[in-house]
Amino acid sequence: MWIPTEHEKYGVVLVSFRGTVQHGLPLEIGDTVQILEKCEGWYRGFILKNPNVKGIFPSCYIHLKNAHVKNKGQFETVIPVEDSVITEMTSTLRDWGAMWKQLYVKNEGDLFHRLWHVMNEILDLRRQVLVGHLTHDRMRDVKQHITARLDWGNEQLGLDLVPRREFSMVDPDEISVTELYKLMEHRHRKKETAAPASTHHLFVHVKSLMSANLGEELEVFFHIYDGRENRPLSERFFVRLNKSGLPKSPEKTERQCTLFVDLGSSDLRKDVYIVVHFIRIGRMGAGEKKNLCSVQYRRPFGCAVVSIADLLTADSKDDHLLKVYACNTESEWHQIHENIIKKANSRYNLSGSNTGLAVALQLLHGDIEQLRREYMVLFTRGVSITRKLGFSDIIMPGEMRNDLYITLEKGEFEKGGKSVARNVEITVYVLDIDGQILKSHVAAGSGEPGGDEYHSLVLYHNNSPRWAEQIKLPIPVDMFRGSHVRFEFRHCSTKDKGEKKLFGYSFVPLMQEDGRTLPDGTHELIIHKCEENTSLADCSRYLKLPFTKANLPSNNQTLKGTKESFWITSFLCSTKLTQNGDMLDLLKWRAHPERINDSLSKLKEIDGSEIVKFLQDTLDTLFGILDESSQRYGLKVFDSLVHIINLLQDSKFQHFKPVMDTYIESHFAGALSYRDLIKVLKWYVDRIVDAEHQEHIQQVLKASEYIFKYIIQSRRLFSLATGGQNEEEFRVCIHELFMSIRFFLSQENKGTSPVAQTQAVFLRTFPAIYSELLKIFTIREVAGFVRETLGSLPAAIHADCPLEAVKLQCIAKTVESQLYINPESRCILLPVVLRVLQAHMQEQRDLVMCARILTSMLSLLKKEENGTTEPVVSEEVELIVESLLGVLLRTILEISNRPQPAGPAMRLQFQDVTTCQGEFVACLLALLRQMSDRHYQQLLQAFSSKDDLRDYLLHIFTVFRILIRPEMFPKDWTVMRLVTNNVIITTVLYLSDALRKNFLNDKFDYKVWDSYFYLSVIFINQPCLQLESFSPSKRKKILEKYGDMRVMMGCEIFSMWQNLGEHKLNFIPAMIGPFLEVTLVPQPDLRNVMIPIFHDMMDWEQRRSGNFKQVEAKLIDKLDSLMSEGKGDETYRELFNSILLKKIERETWRESGISLIATVTRLMERLLDYRDCMKLGEVDGKKIGCTVSLLNFYKTELNKEEMYIRYIHKLYDLHLKAQNYTEASYTLLLYDELLEWSDRPLREFLNYPMQSEWQRKEYLHLTIVQNFDRGKCWENGIILCRELADQYESYYDYRNLSKMRMMEASLYDKIMDQQRLEPEFFRVGFYGKKFPFFLRNKEFVCRGHDYERLEAFQQRMLNEFPHAIAMQHVNQPDQTIYQADAQYLQIYAVTPIPESQDVLQRDGVPDNIKSFYKFNHIWRFRYDRPFHKGTKDKENEFKSLWVERTTLTLVQSLPGISRWFEVEKRELVEVSPLENAIEVIENKNLQLRTLITQCQSRQMQNINPLTMCLNGVIDAAVNGGLARYQEAFFVKDYMMNHPEDGEKIGRLRELMFEQAHILEYGLAVHEKFVPQDMRPLHKKLVDQFHLMKSSLGIQEFPAYVRASPVHFTNGSPRTCRNSVPSIISPDGGRTVSRRSYPAVNRYSSSSLSSQASNEVSNITGQSESSDEVFNMQPSPSTSSLSSNHSASPNVTSSAPSSARGSPQMAEKHKHSRENACLSPRERPVSAIFPNPLDPAQRAPTHQIGDTTLPRSDPNLSAPDKVRPTPSSWSLDSVKERAPSFSDSVGKLLCPPVPPRPPYSAGSSAKNMRSQSPVPSSRSPQKTTVPPFTPSPTECQSTSLVSNSPVLSGSYSSGISSLSRCSVSEASGTELPAGDHPPHPLPPPPPSSSSSTLPNSVSSGSDEPVRRENKTPPPYSVYERNNPRRPVPLPHSLSIPPQADPPALPPKPHQLRTGSMKLDGSADPRVPRPRPLPRKVSQL
Fold it and tell me: What pTM does this model have?
């Protein structure tokens, strides 16, 4: 049975548990679990990190730990009983663990590894703490280390700052807000800037000396040298080096490492140096040969210098290589370092070019104990300490030191009978009082142990040597008396024996008879001469002799006159010995009573360091004198005591205050001294007012703290000794003393007067007296003293008086003292404190100090654990609220509104004030948190009028808004922010009642309510309350402690809103935006509370104005800005929709409400899609498409012009980033077209300055032209140039006009000179619900990037949509795909159908120009899919091979404002096998003609393309290709079954004969140009051609073929004229009248020449092999058809179409380059799965296809059909003109081609209405097939139902015009607007039979109706000129249709109102869309 646990509540998992049992809970080792129940060895509970999942687990797997349980029962929480540092470590490491892994994912390797090391370090330290074996000090160090590491990691990871006290986390509820703020501020400042250390140390580690000429040992001496004062700052560090230059004792690190300690900050200057001296140990001369002499001398070697300042910037890890210099003459040795520093180059030189000392130097900071902790390894392995000469900046009381430093300066010696100067060496000994040499007490420096003697260096032949060697004599204090130092002088002979001969000595005693030591300074010692063998062992002989010349008696002229002298400098650094005689006199006052007065007087002149050495002895002396002679010396003793007390105020001696405190507590024995001290002190105080000089009195008052300490301690000692006698007398004395003090304080003086300064001195020291007074007086008595003393100060002091600031400091110290902490004294002092504070805060003076006082006061106010307040505390809170709450609010407002000053000094002051702002805020929060219901009631009742209450509420709401600001607290102060918010929401709940009671109904005040709502909204939207962005553990902690404060505030807003009643109208629409922002917070409860407010707003707005347009407008405006900031989500959209729809169900205005909700919901869909797309990194189609969708929505559905323009510019920026310059131009044109050429001023908007409308439009024009230029869309740029030029001309601005004309000319040049790439077009279908709204289940056509083929495009789309699945077919998907919860992409290439036919059909127009019209302003695209209908004949599959032709119409033309546009309409027709065959052969004939023409006109650089094409066609024909067509269509069965196809069969036969004739002519041309090495191939082709002719049964060509010679006049085309300009044929200059089968079109041969020149060059440049270019594939049925598949499957399937056969479609460009991506062998039926091709196969595919036979591949489609026209041609050069052609059309250049027999068409394609035209005898539209004659045939345009232009003339003028064609839209919709209306179609003329046209499945007659409701497309420079799209575009976004579209861009006068803007010429039958309201004047 499961039993709830009592004690087993919390545990840690020891072993992982899989949880395989029923209800098992899987556990991982280390998880912490909370246990709920137990049962027979099992526990039931949950893991703390996932409390929602509960289960059972074995009890033996759990290690139980002690824990506290809160809220026992269902919602109990368990807190483990362990060290708070351990708890914090555990939770922090868990949080870090997840973030640490993310660092690896984000590739932040450095932080990843550093954090890893810190986490391991923390785990190791945690282990040490848990074991519990650490000492108390060590535990403290470990915890400090842990918290430092935790703080570092939190800072690095951007986590919150943790408030701590003594290493433990602080609960913000358990301390006051002011305390919390102080803790946070302290930790923040500590983190921000570490306090600069005042003590520094230099670590030196000697590595080696690198020198080429070493061979002797060296002694190296380091010391720190002051270059400014030319003196050493430290003793020397001594290292011995061996002959190799390495340390002599490498195993003893302390002999090669040292720490120069106690350097002050002033020592880190540029002119402080590290000086290194090198002394060699060896022969006298460095280069002397070795001799028998074994005596070694210390000789100069070199010196090195480095500045300490260099170490501050250098990398401490690097070793330094110090250059070593030698002096030029040894006499300069003593100052070589000075010469190096001064750079006196003449006095020293480099000691060898490669001599250098390798040494590690590092500056360390902090006190020595801190270094011992931080650099433990340094001290454990051994390091010598090198001290400063003298004491450090701060002298510590316990420091023991007794070092005497002697510097051997110089000597003066006589020759002594020698011819040369001496080599003098000094030997130094220290001897004690008994004359014994002190062992190990002579040290050359730190690093090496001391020796018994010291030998100086020897300077060669120098009678005035200067050594400048410093030695250290660490002699114990007790051995100083009687000891002396002896210096022995020897001459070092350089002879063979090398003897050292004694010739003299000097000595100096260390202590004088009176106890004073040898004074510091230079001493000239007497050199006593002696014999070489003199024994100096008996000291008594010479100690009686004089030792310095200064001490010689005047009668001793013998020694005074001697020239020989020896100079030393001594310096004593001792904490026990003194050199001061006055000090000794004072201490021995009893021996000389007569000197007491002098000694006391001289005490002030004694150095402070001497006094503190003997502090206790000095104090005993003073109080001894006072006790014995108080009347005589009382005043002097008092003054001396004041001097000593004030001496300890100095920073150098401040650490001796504890010594004095200890003396007072433990050693002071002056029980009677208090009377004299009080008496003298009162005497001084009474004389303050009258005294002229206040300096001494101020010194007395400055020492009053310790004077009172002595008074109180003396009185306590007296009481103890006497049992409390004279108590009353003492109290009276003290009262009188305070009366004197109050009197002098009450004096009013100017701030600068001496008395005022004395008052300030007293006030500074007064608070320190409180604790002393409390030792004798009661707390209330002391509080009374303080209150009366502070109250005695004059109130009316000037604001700028310095005394005011001091008074405030005194108050601050009072509040911080022990006296104020006690509630008894607090109630006495509080009124005084509040009065002073209030006065200062009202005048905004000394705010920093005020903040400090208030913080201290409020830190003492705490609520009890149950939330109640003590009565005493409650009264204090009441007092503070009454006095300070209002002024506190005003102060915070004042500080927040202060502008930042400019000057640096002012800025510093401003920073102080800003810092105190945080303290004031903490005080306000602390005060509000202490306030109870009663306090709030009293506060609100205290206002005398409603206006006062109103002002107060406005103030407090404004302050709360300031507190919520992000910059109020540092970023990582989340704890402080949460406390702030908790206080704010509690206060707001109290104040909202006051708002309801006092400011509703007739007393309604808009400003207060608005401020309230504004505060509430800002509160909810704070980043620190958005719990969703926090980690789960942090979120859980906040919810447990505070709950979700956003929901609380949301409920309060709703409640207050409901109370407003009819006053709600005041907040509509102002509060819509703020409330909308609140509802976008992702908190479901908050949304449920707040969204209904919008229904309420709609309802009230409906009541007021009958609609809610204002609500709608505001909602839409705010949604855009808020959602672009990342707010809102799909859940919100659904919730918004559902809640509001439910709310308005019963409203009378339900319909309009639903409409509004639907609009807003649709906008949200688009905005969410837009935001999701914008999150992606690179600019891709998704971003652009989404922006276009949103832009159109704003324009068409919402009519929001400003938002529309904003998104135009966002789209423009996206295009520029993606380098889509053409699209960028079209986008910017949208804005350009909203402007007019007027002088209206426009305001500053986006990045545009304030300017006139004309200027902005001019700027836009220029920008657009520039982008059109970059996008190589120069034709569009020309139009804008012309428009600008007209404007400049109208203003007579000829300068700019000239520039514009030149720009226009340059664009024309670029059209002719620069190459333009022909883009590919791809159809993309987006299917499935996972796509964004603007793509979902829609199909688009996309313009590819340069050089982008199908496989590359498909890969790009799959990269943009990584979760999409590519569909493997081109069929339309079914509903399951549409509704699937996935993403499907269907991609295949499509071919554009150009609109501008006129330019394309003209001969003589360069390809550079035509290419623009082929691929720009395209509305329609085509895709062909081959399929078999009926039974498939395995022997000949072409009998059943049909083509399904799909035509896609877009909503806007490409290119436009996007690279892709949605498909608006699909049309589908089927092409029969026979028509398919005709198209295939026609296209191949066209290709052959083109190549032949190019070859003839020398346009080809080589003949390979023609060779390959001829080879492909002839080879296929010979192997049975054409025979398959004969088998399929020329048999009786087919003719009988398809009698309507008779004309088409005849047409096919004509084409086959024509192909043979073209081949024959081509071979003739080929023979003329073929190179010699290809002759065998040519011969083979000729042979195969004869076989082909025989296989076709052609012995000679029919008469009608032979009758017309071929005209190829040296490649020069013949000229013809068109009677009517055509807009249908893409390339041909001629058109042919229609037959009854669909879409037959021809080009003139000349047009082929111009059209193909560019294309053929592509092939020739890309491939030299027919195998590469013609990807031949054998037919399934027979290999004879292999060459039929030379093109990729879509070469013909996507072939361009002509509208001649079907007037619904304009003819499409004949290329189908996308099919180069597809391999028919691998991908039948599909155009979307490309096979990577050889680059050579990426040639334009109109030249790749070389087939003339039926296609066997099912993916091949029929080429456009070409209608034959009669032609006469011959092989001689004959030019013929067609006289009936209109001269208004440009000439057509037609190379001669073989003549073709005419055939009348049979029936139309399947699924087309059969309409057989009856041609007349002179027209190709005849019912019978007449013999062809050379005479021209005329065609009437009116007889062509398709309205295609008619070719008229002889057969020779146009028969060679060939084209692919396409089955297109229904008739009547593709007519040029200028020709004739689409309905009704005119009848044919009498000369021809009336004919009807085939119709597609989709009729075009209803198209205008269908288009009326479509969204008008954005501006396009070229719109279609026919009524197929009759809906006019919005104003300024379109171009009017033109009657006769020109071939080139029109002139400005034609375009002023036409080409760039819409005028009234649009179709009047179509209604305009609603106009955009013009707000451009504001833009």
Answer: 0.62
